[in-house]
Structure formats: structure tokens, C-alpha cells
Design a protein that fits this description.
about 200 residues, 9 strands
Length: about 200
């Protein structure tokens, strides 16, 4: 819910785009893929420049996944004011999401449509990273708040557990991370910076 602290976020991108953002005052472009698990917005890895760089390298290797080609993987940092945050580690936010799902389900069924489904991105994907259902529910929650004239969420924050067990028998996952989806970069991002190490 309402957060009063600033966090550091990191965004993986092509160096040309990153340098342009750092020099021009432009913002990270929002992602609007149907499978973005926190809904539409600009995505950042919280406190993890290495994960942001790994993501940019992944997009370079698999260009069919990216909206933009990545020639040179690069990371930019951002100082983020979470503001009114739909924080999926918070019980109140989870209640909002659950109620949103119930209303989304009822609306979808009454329209004679089928609910979206979270699905695999590739054969070895056990984490169902194409989050069609989750994305639709989060976007629906935002639409409901707008319709009800409730205060909009500035950001969505979630812990994503993925990657399989870190060691045999572990419940700790090897690629667990926190992501932040920024719905209004002009309001939530207080500044960009160049991380010291890019390797």
C-alpha cells in the first residue's frame, strides 16, 4: 500500500537507449505485453543491477523475446518513489488482487469469454513466465480503481520466485527477485544514474 521510502531500481536495455535516457531526461518506455506479470508499465529490478544486466544479455541472445533489439547490453539505475504502491508482499494488496480476480473472472464469464492462462515460454519453463492471467488481473484492478474514482496506484511491486531450487531440497529459488512496475515514470522516478560496474 502507501510506501514512504525510496528504492533503487535497475533496468536492462540496449546501451544506445540507456545513454539516451541518461543524457536527455527521457524515461524508460512502458512495456505492454499481455504476459507482463505486474501489468503494463516500466519494469525495474529492485536492488539488482546484475539481474538487470543478465536480462539485457538474455534479450540480446533471444531477440524474438524483446520489443527492441539489444546490440550492447547495458543497465541504468533509477531512484524510485514507490508512492501509492500495490505491493504484492503486503496482505492488504493481496486482498485487493484477490477481489480483483474474482470480479475479473465474473466479468469474463458473463461476456462469454475464457480466462487467460499463465503458460510456459519454452519447454524447460517450470515457472510459467508468460503471465497472461496475472497481467490481466493486475490491469483489471487498475481499471476498477479508475472506474471507482479511487486513488491510482503509482507502482506495483512483487517478489518473483523462479529458477528451481538453489540446492537439493531447497525452497529457496535460484532466480528469486523483486520487480517494480512503474505506471507513471514522470511521477515515480526521481532521477536516473549510471551504475559503477557494468560487466
Amino acid at each position: 500500500m502507501f510506501a514512504t521510502s525510496f528504492v533503487l531500481g535497475y533496468h536492462g536495455c540496449d546501451k544506445k537507449i540507456g545513454e539516451k535516457i541518461l543524457s536527455s531526461g527521457d524515461h524508460v518506455s512502458p512495456s505492454r505485453n499481455a504476459y507482463d506479470w505486474l501489468g503494463a508499465g516500466a519494469y525495474f529490478w529492485e536492488n539488482s543491477p546484475k539481474r538487470a544486466l543478465a536480462w539485457a544479455k538474455f534479450l540480446q541472445k533471444y531477440p524474438q523475446v524483446a520489443d527492441h533489439r539489444i546490440k550492447t547490453p547495458f543497465v541504468i539505475g533509477a531512484i524510485i518513489d514507490l508512492g501509492n504502491c500495490l505491493d504484492l508482499s503486503d496482505a492488504g494488496s493481496l486482498t485487493i488482487i484477490r477481489k480483483g480476480y474474482e470480479e475479473f473472472k465474473a466479468t469474463t464469464i458473463s461476456a462469454g469469454a475464457q480466462l487467460p492462462v499463465n503458460e510456459r515460454a519454452h519447454d524447460a519453463d517450470t515457472d510459467l513466465v508468460k503471465r497472461h492471467l496475472d497481467c490481466a488481473v493486475v490491469n483489471f484492478v487498475h481499471a476498477l480503481r479508475h472506474q471507482s474514482k479511487l486513488r491510482a496506484f503509482d507502482t506495483v511491486r512483487g517478489v518473483f520466485t523462479e529458477g528451481g531450487e538453489l540446492y537439493p531440497g531447497a525452497k529457496i529459488q535460484s532466480k528469486t527477485h523483486v520487480q517494480i512496475c512503474i505506471r507513471n515514470p514522470a511521477k515515480s522516478i526521481k532521477g536516473y544514474f549510471r551504475p559503477l560496474v557494468q560487466k
